[in-house]
Design a protein that fits this description.
This protein is mainly alpha-helical. It is 61% helix and 0% strand. The longest helix is centred in the last third of the chain and has 74 residues. The protein is rod-shaped.
């Protein structure tokens, strides 16, 4: 589509006003032209008694709402705000996706840790059983050795000289 812009442009809604646009008052006139009425201004003092600008038909002829709306709409460009809002939404979505991914990885790590602990516990039980068996075997061999040494001392000495025992254990 050649006529469309790649960026989103919000629709502009102009509210039609029924009051005619009148030029602002000239400097030196008695009408207060500031956005904030002063305490000594006649329009402010008159509003307390019910004689406001809207009730007397607009003394100055300026529609403040329209003037402020025009200034505000000209002062604020909504395009950067829309872009930053879209970027914020995109970043929020990415952050949520990463959060979900982290939760899945954390659950996977918990499952792996549980199975590793179970495997480690099985290995420890097997190691204790092997140690118990080795202790029993060592005790049995020591008993047999001492019996053989007492019953057959000459043969035991000659076998011990021929095949000396290592003391590495």
């Amino acid at each position: 589509m050649p006529g469309k812009s790649p960026y989103y442009s919000p629709p502009t809604h102009q509210v039609p006003y029924s009051r005619p646009i009148v030029s602002p008052p000239q400097p030196g006139s008695s009408v207060n032209t500031s956005a904030v009425p002063s305490l000594t201004s006649g329009s402010y003092a008159g509003s307390a008694t019910g004689d406001s600008e809207s009730s007397n038909g607009g003394a100055s002829g300026i529609d403040l709402v329209e003037m402020l709306n025009d200034r505000l709409s000209n002062a604020v460009d909504p395009l950067p705000l829309d872009r930053s809002l879209a970027r914020q939404a995109q970043t929020s979505g990415e952050l949520n996706a990463k959060h979900r991914e982290l939760l899945e990885l954390q659950a996977l790590a918990q499952r792996r840790l549980k199975s590793t602990r179970a495997n480690f516990a099985d290995g420890m039980r097997a190691a204790k059983e092997v140690k118990r068996d080795l202790d029993w075997t060592q005790k049995r061999v020591s008993t047999l050795k001492s019996k053989a040494e007492r019953r057959y001392p000459a043969e035991y000495r000659s076998a011990n000289e021929r095949y000396p025992t290592s003391v590495d254990y």
